[in-house]
Amino acid sequence: MILLQLTANTGPEECCLAVRKALQLVLRECTNAGVSVQLLEDVPGDQPGNLRSVLLALEGDAAHAVALRWRGSLQWSCPSPYRPGHKRKNWFIGAEVFEPDAPNTSEAVQEKDLRFETLRASGPGGQHVNKTDSAVRATHVPTGLSVKVQTERSQHANKRLARALLAHKLANAAANDANAARAERWLQHYGVERGNAGRVFKGEKFIEK
């Protein structure tokens, strides 16, 4: 499993639109490569449909290659659709890749430090969503970090995703400030490097340059 996060950082709404467009392209690339994708978390922008951040779980033989194609700073060159006449035309977002099964991250989440609770799934899901207690809330006891996962119908699959998500959050916290684990949820949002884009996209159709 590979975790891929797209983030607008603290950028304006145009960056949130860029995240939305990048997500559509990621999903298309995954489909073409035979990679399965699950949405773990998302933070909406101010405009309907836009996203300030999105966290995906990618699985499949080509998952690693697809994720690494996105890692780094991404540039979208397009006039603002929200502010006609605005001088700025380059918008930057970031893409972070995390491998929860890698040797250097496997020790981040110890089973003895985890507390799992099962609960009924909520929200959309059709006639089956509330018939089983398949949703899982996982808490990392030493730090108090907690996540809820209900994307899968089985507890086993949701526990696996919860472990990966907790490892992702702990690694981000440790890389910046171990004491900020409780307070900071998306530390890497503040690390988008402008002016040094790994991939550049142009126009409303978000076509790669």
Give a quick precis of the structure:
The protein has helices at 13-33, 63-70, 155-176; strands spanning 2-7, 36-44, 51-59, 72-77, 90-98, 114-119, 135-140, 145-149, 199-202, 207-208. By secondary structure, it is of the alpha+beta class. The longest helix has 22 residues, at 155-176.
Describe this protein's structure:
With 209 residues, the protein is an alpha+beta fold. The protein has 2 domains: 124 residues, 2-Layer Sandwich (Alpha-Beta Plaits), CATH 3.30.70; 70 residues, Double Stranded RNA Binding Domain, CATH 3.30.160. Helices cover 24% and strands 30% of the residues. The chain is built from 3 helices and 10 strands. The strands form 2 sheets. The protein has a 7-stranded mixed β-sheet with strand order 2-3-1-5-4-9-10, with helices on both faces. A hairpin with a 4-residue loop joins β7 and β8. About 10% of the residues have low confidence.
